[in-house]
Amino acid sequence: MKITEVKLGILSVPLRVPFKTALRSVNSVEDIIVEIHTDTGQIGYGEAPPTGAVTGETQYSIIGAFKDHIIKTIVGRDVDDFENLMKDLNSCIVKNTSAKAACDMALWDLYGQLHKIPVHKLMGGSRKKIITDITISVNDPEEMARDAIDAVKRKYDTLKVKVGIDPSLDVKRLEAIRKAVGPDVRIRIDANQAWKPKEAVRILDSMQEKLLDIELVEQPVKAHDYEGLKYVTDHSIVPVLADESVFSPEDAMTILNMKAADLINIKLMKCGGLYNALKITSMAELCGVECMIGCMLEAKISVNAAVHLACAKQIITKIDLDGPVLCSEDPIEGGAVFDEKEVTVTDDFGLGIKSVKGIKYLDL
Ligand SMILES: [Mg+2]
């Protein structure tokens, strides 16, 4: 199976409601779609969301990474030369992790199709179904409590609550939500780097004193502040999950060596795809550190790839793959089935994406 052509396009999917975090506010998913065509007629699909606030990548930078580096690295190559393809993809340009992730998943898709096996099984997996949380955007406490009640009515049992805009309100936000949903719903919070280390410990202490029962806190401090992250991990009773602090497998190794976090959040768009994500899961497994699998604002093509990984690796115990359910429509046929919190992987070969409606193809 030889790679003959790479096509890029843009897919726009409106969100049900605007998505707001301490870093940004967004109304629709506007992702780059990658199709890798082959001489057998089979197509591998990938997707990259331009998440400038987190990865530094834009639509233009993702397109540029493909045009100037990735396409010339892979066209004409044999899909079965998989490990060399992965190594060359990762070395043809530094950073640009979302562009690499989109190419990586399209190659896994083709490799699975070539060998007639679903990617989750190729990775040795045995799970078929995972349960995701859903994100509550940061707003006034009352509005967040209403959104939380809506989510619980939709049968979600775990809420991921965004905090960090005006930290003085964060305890009030959580009080309003806990009061609205009762004691049985799991609440995890994501500060998206908004707090200082001591401030984080103080806010978390005060949340637990008020019996808000926070399951974990995601990225309380700045991404580069590993010492600050470790300070929060050492001083707070709420488990700390590193998100923006861990992009690459090398970052994961540093965090694990320092014991700077209790958990690691893996996102394909941060680490550059499944090939690197597997390195992080292996290290985390050795260290006994559980992982979350997360996503950016993504449609189903790339989240589906993350579902395959999650179904394959038991060290991934927490699932934050709500991208597709935040979208108001699903233009993608095939791939995992998203039924609110329940996400079920399919046994189609590769990653199982059949077609995508509404791609605006780009002239390269
Ligand atoms: Mg996060």
Mean of all residue-level pLDDT scores: 96
- The shape, in one word, is globular
Radius of gyration: 20 Å
The residue ranges in which pLDDT falls below 50 over 5 or more consecutive positions are none
Q: Are any ligands bound, and if so which?
A: magnesium ion
Main β-sheet, spatial strand arrangement = 5-6-7-8-9-10-11-12
- Main sheet properties: 8 strands, parallel
Distance between the termini: 23 Å
What structural class do the secondary elements suggest?
alpha/beta
User: Which percent band covers the strand fraction?
Assistant: 15-25%
- The total beta strand count reads 17
What oligomeric assembly is this protein in? single chain
How much helical structure, as a percent, in the residues?
25-40%
Number of helices: 14
Structural account:
- This protein has 14 helices and 17 strands.
- The protein is 40% helix and 25% strand.
- The chain has an eight-stranded parallel sheet. The chain has a four-stranded antiparallel sheet with strand order 3-2-1-17. Strands 4-15-14 form a three-stranded antiparallel sheet, covered by helices on one side.
- The model has no long low-confidence stretch (mean pLDDT 96).
- Helix 2 crosses helix 4 (97-114) and helix 3 packs antiparallel against helix 4 (97-114).
- It is globular.
- The protein is α/β, with parallel strands linked by helices and 364 residues long.
- It binds magnesium ion.
- Residues 190, 192, 218-219, 243 line the site of magnesium ion (MG).
